[in-house]
Amino acid sequence: MSNLTAEQPMNVRTISDGARPLEVVAILVKRSMIRVRRMPSAFIPSLIMPVFQLIAFSGAFGFAVTSLGIKNALDWYVPLNAMQGASFGALGVSFGLINDMQTGFFDRILMAPTQRWVTVISSLVAAVVRCIVPITLVVLIGYLGGMNTPGGPMAIVCVAIASVAIAVVAAGFALGLTFRMRNLGAATLTQFAIFFTIFLSTSQVPLSAMSGWLRGVARINPMTNILRFARQGFLGDVTWEQSWGGIIAMAALLILTFIYAMTGIKKFDQ
Amino acid sequence: MSIAIADPKMMTSSSSGRSLFRHTFALTRRSVVGRLRQPAVLAPAFIFPLFFAALGSASFNKLAGDPYFTDNIAKSFLNYAVAGAVLQGVLFGSTSAAGDLATDIEQGFFERLLASPISRTAIVLGRLAGSMVVAVVQVVIFLAIFLVAGARVESGPIGYLGLVGGSALLALAMSGLMAGLAIKSGSPEVVQGAFPLVFVLMFLSSAFFPRHYMKGWYRTVADWNPLSHIVEGMQGFMNHDLSASQFAKSWLLPLVIAIISIAFALRALSNRLAAS
Amino acid sequence: MTQAPIIATGLSRYFGTGDNAIKAVDGVDLEVQQGEIFGFLGPNGAGKSTTVRMLTTLLKPTAGTAFVAGYDVVKDADKVRRSIGVALQDAAIDPLMTGRELLTLQAVLYGLSKVAGKNRGEELLERVGLTAAADRRVGTYSGGMRRRLDLALSLVHEPTVLFLDEPTTGLDPMSRLTLWEEVKRLNAGGTTVLLTTQYLEEADQLADRIAIIDHGRIVRQGAPRELKAMVGSPTLSISVASSETDEARAILARFGDLRPTSEGTLGVGLARGAEDVASVIRALDEAGLKVRHLELDEPSLDDVFAEATGYRLEGADAANKPAETEVVPEAKKSRRGRK
């Protein structure tokens, strides 16, 4: 496609079939960052909440975990709260989409010859970019508090992978829900869904310490596997045994939520 | 919402004591009805406390294996968690009530009340009393649920009264504080912003986990936090034989705070009136 | 393109089903010619916006067909979208972004590279007169500025067909004139324009042909001049001294049918309007009658509207119109997240 200048007239035939995906993703992600910068009040909670919960949980419930042989409560909680911080990006995505629907700008996005999957991927990438700061912050505070990493640098790698995956999964879910509900209820529901999914797992204590109903629920919750994958480097060595369950869970959730988001946006084409 | 204005009984001037009571009652009723009409707000006040209690008892029951816990704190974690759930419910309820008050101020209904022959004190007391009523109802419901789930009030029938009374006094204290904040700021956002702080304070106490097991600076904060002692008083009703210290912690302490906070609220009110 | 840019046949949109279904648009037939400005005139709730949303692929028709730029709006929606520019009732903008950012974004969404998009944005900003405000957040723009930006956004890919839904509603007179100028300029450049409006003057000023829509149906269609002529001929009203009234009336009766006019004046219908005025005045002059006041009233579009629908769109009598059809809110804003 030729480089256009102001003098060169442009007509419909020179618009490439479906706009250039990379350029579109780049500019939509940039737009997301601009919005965060200009309206930071929406972003701040996603920084404060995970840090606060890290301190509160490790301070209040620390004994429940250290009494089981874990050296520092932070070892247990940093991965959890990093993932939680990452999931807050999902809410931002939902709010942004609802805002676009209300201003009518979403109509413009729908009308443009950009493919639907490009639009969805842009939001997911934006969620990933948004989660970098919360994850880093939580890990930093963990280090300051004396967190241990027996698994070496791989520990950080695992927690990073898990957190990014959660960010994408949560964002995909938020998108699918927002496309269908088209109002702020979607953001609230996403919040609830994330909250319960995270808490009804090995968020507080390992499976062995749980009793009754919680153990049953946590066992089937994919979050348990993902948490195990994320935590392993902080509790011991990073091994394949502890990883494969989490990897499968992440892959499955990524695929499912992406489909959910795509079928959601396709509804606008009916 | 013109119960107060339209009611002709309100307009008659009788002895100041009787009219204060009548005004307060009407405004209390308005406050309670207003709360009940916002189910979305009630849900977190009920769902989250109960959920955390359920989660806690399922996660931390190993603690019941620790002899120190069973001897000094509680028989089971569920029994321990009841008081914390009650605390959460009451604190959240009080903050929302203040939010309603701030909304009133923002939307000018407050000024209309001020222009009417209703006494100033009745306006504030109406809100606070409404908060107490809601808190009492909440506690009763919570206790019923927990009892069904297997909890036991070890201190006997008086313990029930102790719990309910303590919650009402705590609601009074909390709403007084929040009402003062609402009157001073006139903005519902400020009041809502206070809730996260309250939430933080709850974590830095014995509400969710015994402070005996905490360490370092965290422990120090929890030791000094009045909420720790209030909730421990309530935990005493749940887990031990009746004793005066339980009343001292869960009644006296909130009462003292209530007196200070109501004074603060009334002072804020007179400042606001003087300013306008 | 030999085919007309916009063709609709029996286009309908119902909300709900059965007897209670709201017929927002009920069997609309229209054909907009290449290079035309076509005006869609009607009160709130008449079905204008719903029709536009169907033609711009934002809403699926319940019945009927429509072809825009030669493509079926349902089956080839994608191709339609590439050929049309759309500026809907509320400017579809993001208040947190600047004008420049939004235009560049729009350009990239339509397939331009970032550099080309920026250039295109500059060009459009200048065209709509927003260069000075380009780096300010759109949330700070006035209503007129937002509409201009919205128009610029719709022109990014140089569409051949432009849809404007109530482009000047809520604007001050100056902004309205500016927008009219721009629309005329675009049309002079070859763009076909379909605009909806509730302002008679706008339809009169801009449109080559108009369609009057009421309760979802087109009740009149044609060039403004023709439609007015269909209503009737212009009325000449004069006032003379009271002693000369009878004589003046007799003279007027020779030129056309006498018509009731305001108190103290006499009125006659003139088949050729202004052309006949000179003859009437000459006749009165020859009879020695002195004309104190003279007025020639053309039938207005409001008269056309009143004759077609039974009520007036503007002015004192507008209050007498029947209750508006309330389009179901969620359906009207099907893509927008309003509660």
Please tell me about this protein's structure:
- The complex is a heterotrimer of chains A (270), B (276) and C (339).
- With 270 residues, chain A is mostly helical.
- Chain A has 11 helices and no strands.
- In chain A, helix 4 (73-103) runs antiparallel to helix 6, helix 4 crosses helix 10 (222-235) and helix 7 (153-181) packs parallel to helix 11 (240-266).
- Chain B has 276 residues and is mostly helical.
- In chain B, 82% of the residues lie in helices and 0% in strands.
- Chain B has 13 helices and no strands.
- Residues 1-15 of chain B have low confidence and may be disordered.
- By secondary structure, chain C is α/β, with parallel strands linked by helices.
- Helices cover 35% and strands 23% of the residues of chain C.
- Chain C has 12 helices and 14 strands.
- In chain C, the strands form 3 sheets. In chain C, strands 6-7-8-3-9-10 form a 6-stranded mixed sheet, sandwiched between helices. In chain C, strands 2-1-4-5 form a 4-stranded antiparallel sheet, covered by helices on one side.
- Chain C is elongated.
- The chains are: A mainly alpha (270), B mainly alpha (276), C alpha/beta (339).
- Chains A and B meet through helix 2, helix 3 and helix 9 of A and helix 4 of B.
| Rounded mean pLDDT score of chain C | 85
State the major sheet of chain C.
6 strands, mixed
List SSEs of chain C in N-to-C order.
Answer: EEEHEEHEHHHEHEHEEHEHEEHEHH
What is the element string of chain A, with H for helices and E for strands?
HHHHHHHHHHH
What is the largest interface, and how many residues per chain? A-C, 48 and 47 residues
Helicity range of chain C = 25-40%
Shape type of chain A: elongated
Proportion of strand residues of chain C: 15-25%
| CA-atom Rg of chain C in angstroms | 24 Å
Distance between the termini of chain C: 42 Å
Task: Count helical runs of chain C.
Answer: 12
